[in-house]
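step=predict obj=ATP-binding protein n=221
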Amino acid sequence: MPDAERATGTTGRAGTTGGASTTGGTGTTGGTGTTGTTGGTAGTGTTAGDLAPGLAAAAAGVAAATGHRAVVLIDGRSGTGKTTLGAQVAEQLGAQLVHLDDLYPGWDGLRAASDALVTDVLGAPSGYRRWDWDADGPAEWTSVDPDLPIVVEGCGALSRASAPLASLRVWLEADDAVRWDRAIGRDGEVFAREWDRWAAQEQAFIAAEDPAALADVVLRT
């Protein structure tokens, strides 16, 4: 519900250049990922499809260098375009795609999902119980293959605990008015009623974790 969005990337830093984005060559390696230090800009009108090949290639390169599977974390507030970019990167990587939308245990569950991502999805037992928004309760168990590449998108994906487990960390930003239009255009009154409630959790998470500072790539959509 909160994070099923579309994406059109426009600007980037930390090693993205146009449609063939890569992490900065002068970056430092930590855990299974890298932190780039070079900047770049994607042209106006650049889409998720333009950016995805470069991001996927960067993640695959880190995975090959470290001997770990590719793990891409895509975070940002509602309406920034995480879902579309995540789908495109997963397609390029041939990766599993996990939406944090399926992990949030209701409208107050951002932090719980962020924690579960680290302990259950990226760690053992490598899976999660999908949240059924219509029934307002847990649904079926969804397994995640610990040996295959994985892309995770959603607010709460990029935390101090999850960052060391990733090959590539992406933070998306957009103006508040743009985010509102996208979210309400998608979910209508359902999200309009919960906007402030969810935004407060986003803000608390950002204040606690500073995901933009953890990111290898920051894009304005």
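step=describe
Strands lie at 11-12, 28-30, 33-35, 71-76, 96-99, 127-132, 137-143, 150-153, 168-173, 217-220.
step=end
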